[in-house]
Design goal:
The chain is an alpha+beta fold. It contains six helices and eleven strands. The protein has helices at 2-39, 115-126, 156-162, 176-187, 201-206, 260-265, and strands at residues 78-85, 88-93, 96-102, 105-106, 130-138, 144-149, 167-168, 227-231, 238-239, 255-259, 270-271. Strands 1-2-3-6-5 form a five-stranded mixed barrel. The chain is rod-shaped and about 180 Å long. The N and C termini lie far apart (166 Å).
């Protein structure tokens, strides 16, 4: 019985030994592979790299860039091309010149105190600039009466009164802003209000110049024979060498033909420089 048991055990060990030996060898081989992978790691290679050349990066234009100072867009409006006096301007509109009289203000006449200063002040603010004209009406001379707005938004009519270069023309305006601006200019003695007795332009225009006696005035050579032309109007003070003179064509009265000597001595006229012979 004991011999039989020993025989079976021997047979079992013979059958199991090859399988165990194979398992041990396999385990040792796997151990060696894992240790080699740790000691000598393999750098991974990218499989997504493309052989196509890189394309340049296109940066979209920046449409929000601020406009440089030297590229300031033109301001739409009428361009001031002439300054006749402090309150009368010539504007260029659609290729044509229009005469504009400022609404509600009256500046000193050119031959009146502060007249030239008012003209210069207005010219410094508006000449050569594009302005906005707010039209009011037409006066009896065909001029456009209105308000001029400067490029910076200021009101030219108001600026003249504010700085003491114009009166509030109360005969044609009841504007409270202009009235208040004149009161301030008076109080702080700006511009013409520095004068102790400033004369309003409408009163200055009513003054009649003293008559000139040319009965004994010297006359040019040939004046007794040379014919000239003059407008038979009390408001005219000149005579013209040509009947086609542009100034004479505006005469609404009779045009007289006289000698130059008569024009000087009898009619107290002087030669018109506009159409004088070259």
């Amino acid at each position: 019985m004991n011999k039989l048991i020993l025989y079976l055990l021997s047979l079992t060990s013979l059958l199991v030994a090859p399988g165990c030996k194979q398992d041990n060898e396999k385990a040792r081989e796997e151990f060696r592979q894992r240790r080699g992978a740790i000691e000598h790691p393999v750098e991974p290679t990218s499989t997504t790299q493309s052989d196509e050349p890189e394309r340049p990066v296109v940066v979209p234009p920046d449409n929000t860039r601020a406009t440089p100072d030297d590229e300031t867009p033109a301001i739409p409006g009428d361009r001031v091309v002439g300054v006749k006096d402090g309150d009368t301007f010539e504007l260029l509109r659609n290729g044509q010149t229009i005469t504009v009289r400022l609404l509600g203000v009256d500046t000193p006449e050119k031959n009146q105190a502060y007249g030239q200063r008012a003209k210069q002040f207005a010219s410094d603010l508006a000449f050569g600039k594009n302005v906005r004209l707010i039209e009011h009406n037409k006066d009896r001379y065909g001029r456009t009466v209105g308000t001029i707005i400067l490029p910076d938004g200021r009101n030219l009519n108001e600026e003249l009164v504010r700085e003491g270069f114009a009166w509030h023309y109360t005969a044609y305006s009841k504007d409270k802003t202009l009235a208040n601006l004149e009161a301030d200019a008076r109080r702080f003695k700006r511009g013409l209000w520095q004068d102790p007795n400033p004369l309003a332009p409408w009163d200055f225009r009513k003054q009649k110049p003293e008559p000139v006696d040319n009965s004994k005035a010297a006359i040019p050579a040939g004046a007794t024979k040379r014919q000239v032309y003059l407008c038979d109007s009390s408001g005219s003070a000149v005579y013209h060498y040509s009947k086609d003179c542009s100034v004479l064509k505006r005469c609404k009265e009779q045009v007289l033909t006289v000698t130059e000597a008569e024009a000087i001595r009898q009619h107290n006229r002087r030669a018109d420089k506009t159409c004088s012979p070259k």
